[in-house]
Amino acid sequence: xxxxxxxxxxxxxxxxxxxxxxxxxxxxxxxxxxxxxxxxxxxxxxxxxxxxxxxxxxxxxxxxxxxxxxxxxxxxxxxxxxxxxxxxxxxxxxxxxxxxxxxxxxxxxxxxxxxxxxxxxxxxxxxxxxxxxxxxxxxxxxxxxxxxxxxxxxxxxxxxxxxxxxxxxxxxxxxxxxxxxxxxxxxxxxxxxxxxxxxxxxxxxxxxxxxxxxxxxxxxxxxxxxxxxxxxxxxxxxxxxxxxxxxxxxxxxxxxxxxxxxxxxxxxxxxxxxxxxxxxxxxxxxxxxxxxxxxxxxxxxxxxxxxxxxxxxxxxxxxxxxxxxxxxxxxxxxxxxxxxxxxxxxxxxxxxxxxxxxxxxxxxxxxxxxxxxxxxxxxxxxxxxxxxxxxxxxxxxxxxxxxxxxxxxxxxxxx
Length: 415
Description:
By secondary structure, the protein is of the alpha+beta class. The chain folds into two domains: 4-58 and 262-411, no CATH class; 72-248, no CATH class. It has twelve helices and ten strands. It has helices at residues 4-12, 21-60, 82-86, 152-158, 198-201, 209-216, 235-242, 255-298, 300-308, 313-357, 378-404, 408-411, and strands at residues 66-70, 91-105, 110-118, 133-135, 147-151, 165-176, 179-193, 204-208, 224-229, 250-254. The chain has a six-stranded mixed beta barrel with strand order 2-3-8-5-7-6. Strand 6 and strand 7 form a beta hairpin. Helix 1 crosses helix 10 (313-357) and helix 8 (255-298) crosses helix 10. The mean pLDDT is 82.
């Protein structure tokens, strides 16, 4: 079916003669339509991959990849687990923590928050909060000094800065002659961090582990151990493998259980965007149908002559499949190259456009991510170009079949 002569004729039909300029124009628009659709699809998915990676980095920079806690919500003698954790090469670090709900009171406002007690020496092993401090020092938390580090949004809401005092009110109560009163403790703001995630910047405060133990009356116990693993995508499997190696019974959870719905929503959105943008590619691909139908109509006499010279209907189909495939392949390759180049340079192109028009697409006053991140995944490129090329080939079948059904006697009757 696909012999050199068929390829030659199919390629010959892609070039225009004076009387077929309009058909060539339609052919060009089909190529450009496929190219634009593929370029848009690659670029949009790359930007969405960039946003997903940025959000994952920010979330996992503050939350643990996995955590170990006791069955009763408390972990006794956490240091006894360190030798067992050292034996697991996939566990890169661990840090104890005490976490509980509390209320913060400044002279102006009151706000509920998640209060987390940490050890400054251990925390950098599992968290990047030290690198996100906008005020204060990473080692500023000292035991017994009752210092507190607030998220930027929380500090702004309370109207406090470094050096101000805030009152921490815990759910535990203290019986007094005057009645039962909540436990209160004054803390000094010694630092402010900004991760770029509202969940943490607005609802998290950090204190020293020893101060948290005194505040919540936990003595030597902690809420649990936060773990950092070498591959976040295998955190669940690592947590499962780690359980049997530990002495006693513990609850081991991983980050996918706490944030699974969030990342599932992102994946769903990516699939929907892929389908929507793929429709653009499909419309452009099926423009090939109209192009080939016009070519078939214009070349009926040529087809009839080829048939009289012994060319089979299958070979006639091959000619127009080759023609449509060349159009689809040209558009797919052009769009693939354009999409890859645009995805690689979108972080440079967008700021240039913003400077040109004097406006920002993602204002830093509104969005935490004020730049368009991009992450090109080659598997997406192969999938997009493969689907676009397949649609192009499918679009050639009907016009090619119609061309193979042309009867030489009828077409040459009045020639």
